[in-house]
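Researcher: Checking consistency across runs. Here is FAD/NAD(P)-binding domain-containing protein again:
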Amino acid sequence: MTHTIVVLGAGLAAAPVIRQVMRNTILPSNELRMIVVTPSTHFSWPIAMPRVVVPGQMDFDKVFYPLAPTFSKYPADKFELVLGAADLLDPIGQTINVSLNSGEERVIPYNTLIIATGTTAKDNMPWKLLGTIEQTRRSLQRLQSDIAKAETIVVAGGGLTGTETAGQLGFEYAKTNKKKVYFIYNSDLPLMPPIQQNVRKQAKTELEKMSVVLIPNTTVSKVTASENGIVLELYDKNGATKSLTTQAYVSTTGQAPNTRFVPLDMLDSHNFIKQTTTLQAEGFPNIFVLGDVGNLEGCKAQYAESQALHLIKALPAYLDGKRMPEYQLNTKVFYGITLGRSRATGQMGNMKLFSWFIWYLKGRTFLTESGSLIAAGKKTLTTTFESK
Ligand SMILES: Cc1cc2nc3c(=O)[nH]c(=O)nc-3n(C[C@H](O)[C@H](O)[C@H](O)COP(=O)(O)OP(=O)(O)OC[C@H]3O[C@@H](n4cnc5c(N)ncnc54)[C@H](O)[C@@H]3O)c2cc1C
């Protein structure tokens, strides 16, 4: 009887697993096949989005790669791409209901399920895919158009995405006095632990050098549209409130896991899937969980990658009925933070990295030169697979 492996998602975590498992395990077998479910016809490279939102800086084809050229090479009896979003998982009956992009519903039975559905950015922001590629592109175009027309731009949220985006917008507009760029974050310094103080201070200094107006220790409590633009209500750590009007509001206030289809008892209190140290869903050994959607490690490409590499190695043994080996947590501390188009900062372990080093590694191209290979599953951030 055929064993069906269903993969939910085709992002950073899923892409190498799909290709390597297809090539090494499914194509040589007569008993296995794979179904990939994703609402988007394209892979997305979120890492470059802080530059993409700046109009004219980076074309969409540098960050969105069609899946068809890779997937169309696989024989139809071994591989199927289903365009739609998982909307109900029955882990006992081993089925997944999919809301197809065409509007219909389809129930897909599985023997093994790999959930790699990632996260969605809050406030419907296009940092990650927003459903279909068309929806994501439209949202990005709207944001770019708001930014192009704006006199003032507000970036809110002091994490990696917010800091990098404030840097990209600051370089393009504030430094050159073309537009005012505000950056609101709710602590003393941009970024957050485990990023250490000297790296965070450098981010602050570089943003100030570009004339970005920093508003620390402050939270956006309300966003309303008015005739003059978008009115933001702000409150600071002492409880004082004020308002700020802008024509472009760039929210980077966090992300939520794409787990609405997962039964509640499989989720932790933040709605991430409870993931064991063998990368399985707690209580369901035939369900694997990879990348941002799982609760074992944080939402970082480096974790998505190391979990994918582990599963690629371990899956053949699991399919032979053997025990899954333990996954070793990725404990490497590495951050690369771009600050405009010529400066950067970063951290490896507890060592602050030189600006030029991170600029060279990440800031020049946001690693887009590897995008098509990563989308095709031929490469991850650190590993290039042998081509078979
Ligand atoms: C702006 C930005 C910059 C970043 N920069 C860095 C960085 O410099 N370094 C770093 O380590 N990390 C960075 N990250 C984090 C990194 O992008 C994520 O950790 C990585 O994308 C996680 O990969 P994933 O495959 O788990 O999820 P995702 O990339 O979110 O992919 C999820 C996939 O699931 C699909 N999907 C969603 N819902 C469903 C559903 N219901 N059914 C089926 N499919 C579904 C999506 O279409 C997509 O294909 C950054 C993130 C952002 C947003």
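Researcher: Does this match what you'd expect to see?
Model: One thing to look at in this run: The radius of gyration is 22 Å.
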